[in-house]
UniProtKB/TrEMBL annotation:
Organism: Mesorhizobium calcicola
Annotated ranges, domain Polysaccharide chain length determinant N-terminal: 29-120
Residue ranges with Polar residues bias: 280-292
Name of this chain's protein: GumC family protein
Lineage: Bacteria, Pseudomonadati, Pseudomonadota, Alphaproteobacteria, Hyphomicrobiales
Domain Tyrosine-protein kinase G-rich: 378-458
Transmembrane regions: 44-63
Pfam families tied to this protein: GNVR (PF13807), Wzz (PF02706)
Keyword Disulfide bond in annotation: no
Coiled-coil residue spans: 354-405
InterPro entries, per the entry: Bact_polysacc_biosynth/exp (IPR050445), GNVR (IPR032807), LPS_length_determ_N (IPR003856), P-loop_NTPase (IPR027417)
Membrane topology, record value: Multi-pass membrane protein
Subcellular location(s) of the protein: Cell membrane
Keywords annotated in UniProt: Cell membrane, Coiled coil, Membrane, Transmembrane, Transmembrane helix
Amino acid sequence: MLSSLPVVPQQYFPEAGSVEPAGSYAPSTVELGDLKRILVRRRLWIIGTAVLLTLATLLYGLLTPALYSSVAEIIIDPQDLQVVTNDVNPSRISPDGGITQVESQVSVVQSTGVLLRAIAATKLTEDPEFNGQGMLSRVLGSGSAATDRTVATLDGLRRRLAVKRADKVLVLDVIVTAKSAAKAALLANAIAQAYLADQASARAQAATDASKAITARLDEQRKRVQQAENAVEAYKSANNMVMAAGNLVSDQELTELNTQLSAAQSRTATLKAQVDQMRKQSGTPDGTSEAMRSSVISSLRSQEATLVDQVSQLGTELGPRHPSMIAAQQQLHDTRQLIARELGRIQTAAETDYERALANQQALEAKVAGLKNKSLDTDQASVRLRELQRDLEAVRSVYATYLQRAQETREQINVDSTNARVISDAMPAQKKSWPPLGLLLFGAMFGGLGLGTGLALIAEYSSPTVLSSAQMQFTIDAPVLGILPAGEKAGRRWWRFGTSPAVATSQKTDAVVGLALRRMFSSGRRPPDWPLVPSILVTSPPEDGQQRNRIARLLANAAAARGSRVLFVDTNASNGQKDPQPGILDVLRGEYAFEAVSRYAPGSNVALLGRGRPKAIFQEAHGVYFAQHMLAQASRSFELVVVDGGALAENLNASPLVAMVDEIVLVARLNATPMRDVKATVQAISVMGRVPTGALLVDEAA
């Protein structure tokens, strides 16, 4: 009997691996609309997380003790006060304008030394808020006598202290937080003053250390000066080198003798020139410059001139033999003899002065020659002496520098050269700084929304669901034929065929179903002369059975509403009968013809074929044969066969129908059907030798 049936051309049926490549569909990415659907579906996660976090924050804000913060401001000038020229703490400004130097002071303010000063000044070790001796500590035993209260107080103060520097300014903000506004202001001011005192103490200590170090070197430098002086004196004594006014006496004598010799030589030369001139004018000695400068000669010449005039006058008046004439002539003669004797005396005196000057010159030349010989002997010794004197001057200079520096550093110990001061004392705060309840609630609310969103996304992607048609197309490698609204949420699983479309479905649903039918049978995969009736098998994951049955009935009802005769096959239900009537399983076993077990629904063009009796398992080859035979016979009476194939991952009895139907439509719910179930269904279809040809999605949010 099997051989008498027509052979089915399997190339018309798309099998596993024979469909279009996956690249023709969009990749499985999440779009903004998908994200919105995830968040809407998991809104309870998001809202619940935000509410819980907000309530926890509110409880924290109401139970947490209030804290107050006070700020003291300190300005620090990188260029310190220039009290002395040679300061122990030199003032240098870095290329960045001192920002780095001031920034380092942030750590100094928070240092142990500064904080211990502030703790001592405020007796903070007796304050339970900071010394770690609270009720809880006493109960737990952490406040025993062995605990160092100072260390605990220091740690507590550090936790409540913040030192900040605003951008591009040289001001440090010392911020202290405490349970009391007055205590916070007191501690902030105490830390600021402790910082100033610490800086002054550090600079004084640096000056003290420098002074001690320099003073310790003074004795050594003094001894070096004494040793250098003794060496110079010993060397001068050993070489008979007498010093006067810093120079050798022999050198001074030689210098003086050279000066005297030069003067003697000049005088000798002058006198020799006079004597030579007088000797050359021996006939007229009165023509020399010495005679001309002599007052005696000048007086005698005046007398001679007077007598010459007198003799001339007397000779004219009295005659040559007159006694007056003779007396005048005698006087003239005597005057001329006196002039001659005076000229001779001048010449003799000049020769005597020349001889004396020449003798003095010769004596000085002899002395100079003797001192020169002695100076040549001391020149070699002077080289070493000058070297010793240079060493002495160097040692004296170093000693003088050390002595002056020691005096300066001793004075700097009591001088504060820091240029830091408090420009704003801390004042008790009027408002609490913690907890900022409004800000915390605001942050908790939005943080809870963000955390809830993250948890929702984690939950979604740990168990992903169908998010969009693009994702579905990529997963099943087939087009999505449409997206339907969820429809009625009543307890009924199905309605009677033949019900008015306005009642059974909305206008939108009817349009989507109609377009889906048109798309399925306009794809061109079914040849015009195909002998089997057009058929659609609707399947889904197990949890989507209600929507699958609804959509299968919608497809049948939509086709019937357009005048087509439809055979509806339900492989998933026995209508609740304890002894079910024969159905599709009996047809696939070859026990009944489908005309004998199908029946028309009242007032409808839809014939119903139930599941039948699952009393025996048929062979798959026989089932495929009888499924083909049924579809061939149905083409005489029906224009469409719609099969509710159930969940194929669990319903293997529908495999013969899977092999023979034209279209296999997968039903899934957006944001509800897990992707693992969709993939399991696709895998089951693939095992049966086919792949889905399309999908219909149900949007429960529509």
